[in-house]
Amino acid sequence: MAGARGLGLLLALLPVVSAAMPGTVVRLNKAALSYVSEIGKGPLQRALQVTVPYFLDRSGEVLRPTRIQILDVQVSQFHLSFIADFGIHLSAAANFTFKTFRVPEPLELTLPVELRADARVALSSIGTPMVSISRCFPLLGHPSDFDDSNSTSRALLGLVREHVNAVLSNKLCLGVASLVQELNVHLGTLIGLNPVGPESQIRYTVINAPTVTSDYISLDISAVLFLLGKPIVLPRDAPPFAMPPHVRSEDSTATVGLSQHLFDSALLLLQKAGALNLDITGQLRSKDNPLNTSALGLLIPEVARQFPEPMPVVLKVRLGATPVARLHPNNATLQLQPFVEVLAVASNSAFHSLFSLDVVVDLSLQLSVSRAKLQGATSVLGDIRVEVASSNVGFIDKDQVHALMGSVFEEPLLEHLNALLGIGIALPNVVNLLYVTPEVFVYEGYVVVSSGLFYLH
């Protein structure tokens, strides 16, 4: 598998196939090729370290099988480029060091080789990205004798060269093909679920063949979120999502476009999972705690009458409506509409409903990327809007309740929400792939992550 890592990084972001809803675009730019070229020499060198069969030495009266071994392969140049509407072109230059174990004097020589290969990028029958070598040809140079003190004849050297040329012309391309097969096995690991929460997962799927231009490889991807093994389906179809050709791609290795559909699905998942629900309580004996019947009775006389002794108060926050994310240029916001029930704990530990509120909270949403996850953080925008939904304690002054919500509701809500969004959601990736120095940009209806890549060996 190690041999696939260098070339494999080219398609490290390519997810898997099965869903039909487009929601994400992944684009690998020319900088990705440069990075792969940089780290891919080692895997390519190992793939080119082929076995050379025995050479039949005809220089004497008796045919003598002579062992030839590749002592070392050094890839001095490795370059990758896009082939529009096809895939990737590979060119490499390497020096092969051979040792011929001839008696009485072994022969060491070097052979320069240039390697050219074209690889098609497509989708396999099982729906994973697949790379295949369509054309490969090595160009072998003239060997040089490392050991000037040996007495091996130039005729023998010519025979050895012919033997090595015949072997390498076939086996080097087989070595590259083997490397690509390891890559395809590695890409097969993209099929699977990435956890989002204890009972939820996300799966990215490629929905058509890659688009290859002279500047990048681009993939249309769908993101499906699952709760308890069941897919999250929005009540409305997602419109087609297309990212402009060169948005934030000038210096980035990878550009990932995330549509409104993905954010809507993630918020629906949180709402269905009940992850946004919380209970807000206070310390009964704290002097600053307004969440008890004594403090609340100062605002609502009926509460003081029903609870002459201080008792704890609990705010049960429940989101019946799905949160709404809005994406505008350089501005992402989130709106929550929780239903808040205010309950007092009676002396028998039973809950007694005092009143309930319909609340609207507008939040600023800041997005960031850590390693391979998109994370969020929020802060309240403007005032929290409150309406009394029902009351078991008579008339309630909305302004007084609004002040209460600002002091005891806002901070716990933000802490809870930011803890959830801080967990993050996995971006398209494979194991050991990290996003480095990422930048997040918000556009009308979509978000772009522009990033470098780092592959852990």
UniProtKB/TrEMBL annotation:
GO molecular function: lipid binding
Keywords: Signal
Signal peptide: 1-19
Lipid-binding serum glycoprotein C-terminal domain: residues covered: 248-451
Keyword set includes Signal: yes
Domain of life: Eukaryota
Family to which this protein belongs: Belongs to the BPI/LBP/Plunc superfamily. BPI/LBP family.
Protein name: BPI fold containing family B member 2
